[in-house]
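Sample 1 of the test manifest.
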Amino acid sequence: MLNLYINGDRYRIDLPGDTPLLWVLRDQLGLTGTKFGCGEGLCGACTVHIDGEAARACQTPISTLNDKEVTTIEGLSPRGDHPLQKAWVAEEVPQCGYCQCGMIMSAAALLKKKPKPSETEIDQALAGNLCRCGTYNRIRKAVQRAALPVGKQGGLK
Amino acid sequence: MNPNKPASVRPLSPARRDFLKVSAALGGGLLLAFYLPGRARGAGSAAPFAPNAWLRIASDGGITILVDKSEMGQGVMTALPMLLAEELDADWNKVRAEFAPAGPEYKHPWFGVQGTGGSTSVRVGWEPLRKAGAAAREMLVAAAAKKWRVDPATCHSDRGFVLHPKSKRKASYGELAAAAAALPVPAEPKLKETKHFKLIGKSRPRLDTPAKVRGQAQFGMDVKLPGMLIAAAARSPVLGGKLKSFSAEKVKALPGVRYVVEISNGVAVVGTSYWAALKGREALGLEWEAGPLATLDSAGLSAKFQELMGTPGLVAKAIGDAKTAMAAGKHLEADYEVPYLAHACMEPMNCTAWVKPEGVELWVGTQGQSSCQITAAKITGLKPEQVKVNTTYLGGGFGRRFAQDFVAEAVEIAKAVGKPVKLVFSREDDLRAAHYRPATLTRLAAGLDAEGKPLALAIKTVGPSIMAAAFPSAIKDGLDSTAVEGLADQPYAVPNFSTEWVRHEAGVPVWFWRSVGHSQNAFAMEGFIDELAHAAGKDPFEFRRALLGAQPKARAVLELAAAKAGWGKPLPKGQARGIAVHESFGSWVAQVAEVSLENQRIRVHRVICAVDCGQVVNPDTIVAQMESGIAFGLSAALHGAITLKDGRVQQGNFHDYPILRMGEMPKVEVFLAPSGGTLGGVGEPGTPPIAPAVANALFALTGKRLRKLPLAL
């Protein structure tokens, strides 16, 4: 039995310890905002926060998570109005949208550490997140927008 | 909190932990659990006014527009409702978009089946959706006029209301819905003049964005049904191989595994989670029998193409006598070669199927709803109309999701199991489930006169037929037009011109890949034109321009892109420009790429893109599609190659099938230059010009002509 803390809820999990967090989130808990893209930590679609740090859920066996806090896209903000989510809407970032939750989670971890990241820092922080629709330029702009002082960020329309 | 939570995962404390930084996460979670993205609320099937297949108006004024095309990022979920809402004079804020079911009323007028592809959605929706909105509007106006006993001509509509200014009366569409439903549907409603458009032509935020940034948009991968199981299938690692043996007993005993099912393509392990199914698959002890393709390899295929280049092809186009005319001038000849490519949609292929005696239900991100019905009907012996297709959001399509392999497998498994089953491809399954952009070899030969003008151009391309697998009836007189599109219809004025196709089926399954034949043919055509320009001692932009006198649209986008890029003006040291122009799917696109080499790595700094798609519906979506098409084409130009050895696909995941990363994305500037008239597509036309624009820029930079993709110096 493992204690898992996900988006503020505590769960006791009775599954093999090598089960990746990704499949517990998706198949057991129905938290499907965390996406499966590659299963090898190569695409970033499954990015979550573990104790505040960006991590790939597909590469995280649940055995490593005892007493750790996991945040998924569903728990990033109470009403889906994190500055990054608002900026994503303002910049019209998503196309197919599949990679975007992972992008936002990676960007959120970056902004926590570096509230005013440079373009290079954004590119580096998101280098492991792939977008097949090629929305990268809008992602970069959205991260920059979210880093602006509150009030200048634009918002959910 | 979660009704589907199994016993193995129990929340001990529903209360929020004190130290948790993410405040109100539980509340958010509850909110999300009951929110159904993409589904209209308050305007469901009980709507009193449903004058056609696309529109429902509820008595509370809620407007639901059914979208019969699949949303795979190209923006149809917003652009198509805009068409209808424009003529309806709807209040855009009350418009909700919902995916249409599969049905004959949604048949694509060009394809004859329901489906999304060929950059056609807005093109084919343009008239019927506007007429659907206009007819409903006329009925609402008539209903109001009848109620008020006034002449309908004295009423008008505005943002969800019918107004009668003279008597200062006003009624909402919701109030009028029931009465309007009793009126006849006008067959030829009057459409607005373009100048009166309020929605069309102005950027509207995409309706699907909020759900997509909150993780609420439901993709096929996210489908969860009560009692649903999840499957992973094993297929032959060698193309065309057959299953010899496997051991199910040990696998069935593994935790979470419920069934092991033999299917046409191999074996499926069905379990309570994908992880359980994957672990089960690893333990199958599979043995395969290699089929006739076990010796296939990419080097051999390349040699075979060269050999076939010497054989006569099917003539797709002939003007004058290219071969004779060529002999008179300066002769140039070049071979352009491209590899197989996978689509690599971010969402791997998947399909959820539930086979019941009375019918099949599918939940799937598909580009071909009718094909899904036919696929499931064939496997179950039911009729296509007994197959209900629930279309989800598509995590990328690019043509791949027109295919039926994952649907057929899901139905086979679900039929065997008798429960709802979600079949999920791993990334490796996805890249290896052969549906590739064809590898081709194209030879171009030309003769230039003393002034550098082309006297003759002869093109021969060797490759397979996509249509033979996808839509055999599209092959006319032996010719698959997708093999020569962008070659046979090249725009430059050349008095003697020919295009031939040598069909070669290597046994590697091929499929539609964003921009189809244009994806490789533009690279050959626009690369070779650039070669001719340099051989003629002309500027590549001016050389093209001079040959496009009879092609005003091509010339306009070429000139616009060149002007916006500052063609001819100096660039920073170590950078160079290349240009390309190409028509596909009814739209003209010109691109100028600015490149440099950084430690011998190709770096694309900026791309200037001009597009003429005739009419503009949602401008920002067109910009986004150009950006996207460029990124997609750049992935192919810089990285993409599926190769074969001993009949096996050598690539498996993003480490050996890389796609463009954030740091590689150039700045992109898009300029819309709609010339009016017939609409062109936008989903695909941004892709073809980028590879040649980059290759041409690299020639300008290094003097080295690159004729093979992916580009390597």
